[in-house]
Amino acid sequence: MIQLSALVVAHDEEDRLAACLERLRFADEIVVVLDRCADRSREIALQFGARLLVGAWELEGPRRNDGISFCRGLWILEIDADEHVPPEMAADIRKAIQGAAPGQFLLRFDNYVGRRLVRHGWGGSWGKGAAPCLFSKGSKRWGDQRVHPALTLTGEKRWLDSAHAVAHWVDRDVSDMLRRLDRYTSARARDLRDSGDIGGFANNLRRMVSRFLKCFFARGGWREGQWGFLIALMAALYPMISYLKARLEP
Q1: What angle do CA 22, 26, 29 make, to 5 degrees?
Q2: Does residue 40 sit in helix, strand or coil?
Q3: With left for phi above 0 and alpha for psi between -120 and 50, is residue 21 left, alpha or beta?
Q4: CATH code linked to domain 4-170
């Protein structure tokens, strides 16, 4: 019986995939979803003995759901290619799932820009402090969105008892952060158009202000100086630029 599957969804991640998979060897199986990969991601995944699900998905939610269905483990650890699970947390994960009731465990994240650890200010779909990445099969399902799909969770929800956090290598530098903003807002704009309700300018203007204040002050972004200001600015711009793209672009 397979107790724990590690799941990674990848699209042309040859630069980061090996480092991610190296830290998932503690799982009973590794599953890699290869979405339209034209680089060496397949070769790298096979070097780690991964089971591969190869295809093309337009939406983020369905490709993650297909990966979850492909896993054979009773528990699944869903990790992105830019995330590293430290060895100490690996031991905590194995211990936590022994006899655990069905549901999810929330894992803490440390977010990095380049080599700098930025602890404060993340939010508003921009970075993550914690996520239900460890879950029993059947207790987590993603929605049908292109970016930041909604989650449906069943069963018990609790924190992983660990003093350690997943290292999340969010962006390489400021330019990488701006490119991510462009990608995310383009995908979000398509989701808004598909929903038939793209919202309004005034509401998104208010959201800009509230998101900035929440990230920079309530979430402590001010502690990070100019990095905190930049992260709060990105979180504030995300809904407005998404709206403007949905409204103005064909």
Answers
A1: 90
A2: coil
A3: alpha
A4: 3.90.550.10
Spatial contact of 159 and 140, defined as CB atoms under 8 Å apart: no
For the chain, the structural domain boundaries read 4-170, 173-248
Contact 75, 9 (CB under 8 A): no
Give the pair of three-digit tokens for residue 145.
């969105």
30 with 2: CB under 8 angstroms? no
Q: Where do we find the tokens 């194995």?
A: 94
Both structure tokens of 196: 């038939």
Q: In the prediction, which pLDDT does 224 show?
A: 97
CA distances (Å), origin 230, targets 126, 191, 215, 237: 11, 25, 10, 10
What band does 124 get if pLDDT is binned at 50, 70 and 90? confident
> Can you give the pLDDT at residue 127?
86
Please report the DSSP string for 200-238 in residue order: -HHHHHHHHHHHHHIIIIIT-GGGGTHHHHHHHHHHHHH
Q: Using an 8 Å Cβ cutoff, are 28 and 5 in contact?
A: yes
